[in-house]
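Hi team,

As requested, here is the filled-out complex form for the SAJ run. I kept the field names the same as last time so the parser does not choke. Let me know if anything looks off before we queue the next batch.

— J.
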Amino acid sequence: MTKTVCVVGLGYIGLTSAVMFSNYGMKVHGVDINPSVVRNINEKKLHIEEQGLQELLDRALEEGTFTASTTPQEADAFIISVPTPINSNKTANLDYVKEATKSIVPYVKKGNLVILESTVPPKTVENIMIPELMETGLEIGTDIYVAHSPERVIPGKIFEELVKNDRIVGGINEKSAELTKELYESFVQGEIHLTDATTAELVKVMENTYRDLNIAFANELSKIADNIGVNIWEAIQFANLHPRVNIHFPGPGVGGHCIAVDPWFLVEIGGDDAQLIHLSRHINDSMPAYTAQKTLSILKDNKIEGGKVAVLGLAFKGNVNDIRESPSITVIDYLQQLGLEVVSFDPHIKENNHETQTQYLEEATRDADILLFLTDHHEFKTFDPLTITTNNKIVFDTKNCLNRKVWQNAGFQYYLLGDAKFI
Ligand code: SAJ
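And here is what came back:
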């Protein structure tokens, strides 16, 4: 039975998994190449926002079941959980996976298990990790075991989903998969399904690509609805009453480090066979420009030339403080290119990450000609429009997160993305 775990990469997935293992009977050592991340963690300061994380980290540090540093340590199992971004030409950047694997080589001993958690293009375990692990001089598959155990958790509900979700575990051989299952069973209550590493890699990328395609469909529908006088949100809700239909929802774009990135892995390896996936990426990437253009049209419709936009929401989605690949940033760029002045506010992002950002709602809205909601944070849903001072009373809701009646009763003109009554 595995007793010690070394987790490489202390981001959303690495850190949350590390504190779970350390609260469920393992002794865990976490590694991050960024010394300030390590320093903060050791001082119980979080660099990421996730419900329940602070308590679990505090307990693990106090009980001594979790330590963190910038270098790996010997352990029974190694878990690699590092970013897998895309390069500017949309090809997968697997440098972090390669470097992280290299970094554990001096510490890997006979009988150890090495698990990749990061989302990767199919064949990464085989083509990138295995050659690095061969440097240990140990026999792969008999001396050391290797598996892919992709995470499936949604930011905002990570701890609930880490426990409850089923997991797909792919080993380079049966023993590798079995050992990985045994390790995760310490806290996973969902079923753990075993397969080979390449299948597990493909399954994970397929899941996120499914969501990207579905959202692209919703975004395309929202553009059609804008032109024909239909509220797409209502239409999708009705369509989803069909027992075999589950259309996702439109918005100002698709962000985050997963859904907007992983489909490119399939485009890269699929080439001409991945046309639908490729097109969906383009549709979703077209939404920030579309949103900016609609904002300008609304202003023009109200006889406002130029004007100031208060952008509400910088995070890539509601109730997180993560701005990676956030469509809000791209929307702001387009708004500025269209000659509009922008001030932005996000109650979840406590440090100014963007030149337009203010920490004060009042400062963002005071002289605004339009309030542009780009993220469905719960704080926004409960805003009382009567308490908001603006220059013009116009609101554009791109996430269907506001109560139309409440805003209209407060004297605002309410516009909804994907609602033709629009303009
Ligand atoms: N979005 C829409 N319309 C929707 C749903 C989402 O426009 O109907 C947008 C969001 O606003 C956001 C983006 O899509 O900008 C992505 O958000 P998300 O909530 O769909 O996904 P992530 O990136 O937070 O998490 C996804 C999850 N994958 C799936 O649901 C298949 C999660 O389970 C994965 O673990 C995670 O990717 C990951 O790490 O791969």
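Two things worth flagging: The longest strand covers residues 4-8. The chain has a mean pLDDT of 96.

Thanks,
J.
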